[in-house]
Amino acid sequence: PAANPTAMRRILPGGMVERGGCPFDPPPGLVERRGKGAVQPLPLLNGAEAWLVTGFDEARTVLADPRFSADRMRHREATSLQPHEVEALKAGTLPQGPAIETREDGFFVFMDPPEHTRIRRLLTGQFTVRRMKALESRVTDIAVEHIEAMKAAGDHADLVPAFALPLPSLVICELLGVDYADRAEFQERTAISLNSNTPPEERAKAGAELYAFMQGLVAAKRAEPGDDLLSGLIHEAEPPLTDGRLVDIALVLLGAGHETTANMLGLGTFALLENPGQLDALRADPSLIDNAVEELLRYLSIIQLGVSRVTTEPVTLGGVDIPAGATVVVATPEVNRDPQHWPDPDRLDVLRPRTSHLAFGHGVHQCLGQQLARVEMQIGLRELITRLPGLRLAVPADQVPLRNEMLIFGVHSLPVAWS
Ligand code: HEM
Fold it and tell me: Is 407 a pocket residue for ligand 1 (Cβ < 6 Å)?
């Protein structure tokens, strides 16, 4: 189905895609806007003005030009899209809804230079080659352990809870130095707080527990440093970071590194299973895996509407005048299928020559964990393919529930079987 570039998926109740639609196409609300310009007004917001950017070059400008601020608090009326707006925009049913809510955040993801630069540098200094190398062998161990556990339990499983969610969660435990004894609690709290299907009170409770967990972790690392990133930050940052800032950083790493990688593993496996020719090419030549991961990042662009900025002054972008204080949303799935940059962009092609894509963003906020995410995807997908011969979907493709309603696209579950 992915070979049909004109297929437009329709989403049915329950999150499934109508039979015949391609689950990996960008959301219908974005596909409908094709041909309407690289920079388009978003006709939704009462009060706040917003623009949608679908062109590759224009998106790079937004992410590299300091006139586009990541500080959503700079203009209180402008902030990122809220989940209900994201859902409506993707479905093409965006109502003239209430004005976008504002949000208060102290996270460095929402800061501009020079404040952002200081924290970013401290963190970059902790993502050392030595630490990443050490993590690589742990990623392999974790992937193999989980696949062998799946095999020991039978010949089928739901890949999301059995593999895609625990792998990145445990890698973040390694990165932060969470004790083995505490990992089950950590994983449980994380899963609840990240799942927008759980009632808000429960999510808030799990979020508060996670915050307390991180406070405990920071206190433990202060008392007894380990070889982990958090200990490194505590003992090397000059001037020292406060406990509150350290907890924020730990939560950012968790928030940014868990749900994203988990969904790339789940959705990436689904995309390969639905494109058997591509999967065969990978099986025949496993050295293609690095290329395949880049292509999956481009093709799936799971952060569909999560990258946004606020203009600090009037800007002309792609010939369109945007006033100061406007929200500019980068439509990553469309940007990464810009036909001026990729021939036949709606096709998954693991042999495609490697080119830059914006799945990890661009500019000063470009994904800090991208090397780690790549390693997790390369090792995770390689081990799945080689250790589970005959890996296949255990349900028809149109029965796989997609995360259409979520900020980060993916699959809620992925029933698979093997021989
Ligand atoms: C930032 C994507 C995995 C940590 C970003 C941004 C994108 C992104 C698009 C830029 C956001 C913006 O400019 O507003 C992804 C994807 C991943 C992934 C698709 C998985 C496939 C990870 C992992 C980690 C991580 C594994 C860490 C363990 C971060 C951090 C930032 C970030 C800390 C903020 C950087 C800053 O503001 O300076 N990511 N990410 N990400 N990512 Fe990732």
Answer: no
Least confident of 18-22, 319-323, 329-333: 18-22
| Separation CA 26–CA 302 (nearest Å) | 9
Q: Is the CB of 94 under 6 A from ligand 1?
A: no
> What is the per-residue pLDDT across 123-143, written as a single tens digit (0 to 9) for each?
999 998 889 989 999 999 999
Distance 63 CA to ligand 1 centre (A): 13
Ligand 1 center from residue 153 Cα (angstroms): 34
CA of 287 to the centre of ligand 1 (A): 25
B/e letters for 31-42, b = 16+ CB within 10 Å, e = fewer, are: bebeeebbbbeb
Ligand 1: nearest atom to the Cα of 120:
38
Could you give the count of Cα atoms lying within 13 Å of 291 in the half-sphere of its Cβ?
Answer: 15
Q: Is the pTM here over 0.80, yes or no? A: yes
In tens, the pLDDT along 288-299 reads 999 999 999 999
> What is the distance between the alpha carbons of residues 369 and 294, in angstroms, rounded to a whole number?
15
